[in-house]
Amino acid sequence: MLHQFANNAKRIGKAFFLCFSFLLLRLSGSFDRFPGPTEFATLWKALRDWRGTFERFDRDRSGRIETGELRDALLSLGYAVPPSVLQILVSKYDKTGQARGLDYDNFVECGLVVKGLTEKFKEKDVKLTGSATLSYEAFMLMVLPFIVA
Ligand SMILES: [Ca+2]
What we know:
Layout: H1 2-28, H2 37-57, H3 67-76, H4 83-93, H5 104-124, H6 136-148
The structure holds calcium ion (CA).
């Protein structure tokens, strides 16, 4: 039983840590506040949702999300990522370096970054036109939490 728990914890470890980090950022904009039971329930639901999305869009059952699968998965989540951005995402999060696709952990990390940056951008693009004007400081404050997370 302990061995099974350890294997599950190892398997979901990185995805859990990433979701946990983003949850903390979302709660307070910093790592100052520790989440309670409600937030942990939200975290587990988010992880279950990410797993479901991964499995639904890994259409060839390769255990990895390739470029087309990533495009479709992100689109299903409401993120119409342009092809140029999609290529950058794949090159960054496909850790094999051999265009074999994203494993689950890297898929979650990629998805969280796209989700977080898109939500931040929408705060500046209130009319949802797809463009926004922002200062250098606003841009840096928008992007840096995702780089250092
Ligand atoms: Ca696949």
